[in-house]
Amino acid sequence: MSSLEALPVLASLRAHPRPAITAQEAAAEKVRAKELFDRLSKIMESISAALNDAPRLQPLLSNRTLDSILHIFRDVGLHVEIANLWSKDNLEKASKSLMEAVRFVKSVGSNDSTIPIPYLLNNLAVMRHLEGSFEEARILYEEALPAVVTLGTADSDNASATMLYNLARVYENVGEPSAAQDAYYKLLGRHPEYTDGAWHLNLTFSEANLHLQPSADLLSCGWMRSATMRHTP
Questions:
Q1: What's the rounded Cα separation, in Å, for the pair 197 and 21?
Q2: What value does the CA radius of gyration of the chain take, rounded to a whole number of Å?
Q3: Residue 71: how many other CB atoms lie within 10 Å
Q4: Is the Cβ–Cβ distance between 169 and 231 less than 8 Å?
Q5: What is the pLDDT of residue 140?
Q6: Residues of the chain whose pLDDT is less than 70?
Q7: What is the pLDDT of residue 109?
Q8: How far apart are CA 153 and CA 115, in angstroms?
C-alpha cells in the first residue's frame, strides 16, 4: 500500500483509538487523525486544482493513474468520517467534507452510496444550521425530507421525524412561526411522544422565541457511515 492509500486508513485508525488506552492518549490520537486527514485534504485540493493542467498534474500523481487517486477521494465514508471528526471543533471543515460527499453521491446517483443521500443532506443541513446559514439549511432539510420518505427502510420513519424536527427548528430561526407550527403538528401527529417537538411548538406561540440562535439539539442521520443527527435547546 502506497503512502497516499495508507493515509485514510491510518487516519481512521487514529480517529477510533483502542479501548484500552487512556483518555489523554485517545485525545492525542484524535489530534493526529485530524493532522492526517488535513494532509489528505490538501492533496485532494492540489490535485483538484490541477485537473485541467497536465504539466502541473503529472508530478502530483507520482506514477499513479488519475482514476486510482480519484477512487480514494470519492470514498463517501471517508468524507463523512472527516466531517464527524471535526463536527465539534470546526463546523466549516465538517461542512466542507459533507459537501464533497453530497456532490459525489449526486454525480453518480444516490443508489451507489452506502449512506443514503437524504441522511447526508440532513447532516450537511445541521452543520450549516449550526453555522447560522439558516436559508441554506432550510433548503437542504426541505430536499432531504421528501427523499427519505421514498427510501422505505426500517429507519426511514425515524429519520423523517428527525428531519421534520430540524426543519421546524430552522423555520423558527428564520422567523416563520406558522411554518414551524405546521411542521411540529405533523411531527406530533405521527410521534406524540416527541417531547422536544411539543416544547418547541409551545415556544412558537411566544414572540420572544423568534430568531433564536440554533442550539446543539439538531439530529444527524447516517452519521459515521450508519444512522440519524438533530438540534436541541
A1: 39
A2: 20
A3: 11
A4: yes
A5: 96
A6: 1-2, 109-113, 207-233
A7: 65
A8: 12
Reading the block at residue 69, the C-alpha cell is 487517486
Which grid coordinates are listed for 190?
Answer: 405521527
d(CA 102, CA 120): 6
Domain boundaries, the chain: 1-73, 90-233
Q: Which amino acid is at 100?
A: E
DSSP conformation letters of 155-206: THHHHHHHHHHHHHHHHHHTT-HHHHHHHHHHHHHH-TT-HHHHHHHHHTTS
pLDDT digits (tens, 9 = 90+) for 141-153: 999 999 998 887 8
Give per-residue pLDDT as tens, 196-210. Answer: 989 889 888 875 555
* Closest to 215 measured CA to CA, from 160, 167, 169, 181: 169
Alpha-carbon dihedral 25, 31, 34, 39, rounded to 10 degrees: -110
Helical spans, DSSP H, in the chain:
3-15, 23-49, 54-61, 66-73, 76-86, 91-108, 117-130, 134-149, 156-173, 177-190, 195-203
pLDDT of 187: 94
Could you tell me the three cell numbers for 175? 422567523
**Domain 90-233 sits in CATH 1.25.40.10:** yes
Rounded Cα distance, 188 and 201, in Å: 9
3-class secondary-structure state, position 223: strand
